[in-house]
Amino acid sequence: xxxxxxxxxxxxxxxxxxxDWEFGSEGEHLIPLEMSDSSIKSEKIVMKLxxxxxxxxxxxxxxxxxxxxxxxxxxxPPDEQQGQLSMSDFKTKVNGKEVISMVEExxxxxFKTNSILKKEAEKMSESSEHSVNGYVYYFDAQFKKGGxxxxxxxxxxGSGGVDGKDYEYVITTISKWKNKRVEDFELVIDMGNxxxxxxxxxxxKDNKKINWEIVGEGRMTxxxxxxxxxxxxxxxxxxxxxxxxxxxxxxxxxDFDINIHEGSFHNGFLDFLPGSKQGKYIYKDELTYIYGRxxxxxxxxxxxxxxxxxxxxxAVAGYDFSDSALKKYFSxxxxxxxxxxNVNVSKEEAEYYKEKTEAITAxxxxxxxxxSENLSKYSKDEQRKIRNIPYALRGYDFKDxxxxxxxxxxxxxxxxxxxxxxxxxxxxxxxxxxxxxxDKISNSN
Length: 445
Known about the structure:
Layout: E1 4-6, E2 12-14, E3 23-26, E4 39-49, E5 54-64, E6 68-76, E7 87-94, E8 97-98, E9 102-105, H1 115-127, E10 135-143, E11 146-156, E12 159-161, E13 164-169, E14 182-190, E15 195-200, E16 213-224, E17 234-252, E18 258-262, H2 269-272, H3 286-293, H4 303-316, H5 324-331, H6 347-371, H7 380-387, H8 389-393, H9 401-410, H10 429-444
Parallel strand pairs: 1-6, 4-14
Antiparallel strand pairs: 2-3, 4-5, 5-11, 6-10, 7-8, 7-11, 9-10, 12-13, 13-18, 14-17, 15-17, 15-18, 16-17
Helix pairs in contact: 3-4, 4-6, 6-10, 7-10
């Protein structure tokens, strides 16, 4: 009788909207069926982050007590927003031969009457925020007595939101196999060069630390993030300059699954970084927050801090600064590595901060010049325009079209932003002094 085997595999896919988490599909814990006659001798998982998403390559060696044709597969939900499958580029080989994978809606598949699978599909549907139907991947695998190699690969997009992006992978179903463990286990996580991410501290209920190792150049530190993950209190922050992270062990039997949290300065990831110095490094400061959140506090910074903010995109990319002050400042951070002068800098970020800081510097110079003059020599219309320069700098959307057109024509940096409100604008000391002087002149006339 053919036996159905469910591989230890799941993926999470999501679409981000606004500041909330929005899951396109959510993988469930998968259950292997009738596995008492087979065991896992070895398993190697390679997770590599690519432009398409997380690329997964897994190689199993199964020990079978006899020659037998088996059906191997797994159930996965579609993307809830698009109604599409949550994985792509799925390929499988059994003992070196590529096999054809079948994909069907669960309710239309040969497995729809299987009570255990049906229960899992119902649980998946109940946990979803939208109406979804699961899909089943499956294929025929001719197992021989003894060792059998099964290799499979696919790509999934992960899940994301204001906190950043997560890539999860289920390994706890190892316990469902005959030996309830993998005799030889290896996990490789390749997030790319100059990458920053968090890994789980433990795979076990006894909180034993995972013996992660960096193959290449990089550093790791333990962080207490009990408010971030329910399964475990501690996590490991990793910075890889070049290479990848690996975990190898014997007789592996985990209690928890894999969760990789990709670091980004432009989301809630900053909240998880320690606010104080630990060892030789710090993790964030006021300028890190301003850079990561695009906050209006940038207008209050000193000229030197403005220069630092302008160079943040280059530091995050690993630029090797020649300027000793910039080098010293960024070298204090855990996440900074001096890579080279030819790095992949976000053009959008670099241009944004270049334009923003140049505008602030130019306006400060202009305001100081006005403060050194006798402002009474200007006409009322000119005084009105000078008075509104600080508000134009922040992108205030003037209701007066003459004012708006004036600033658009005179300053290339002026871009009206309907979300900027007068009550939220905090002026600098020089800006306040300029406005007060102009108001006194206006009131005296």
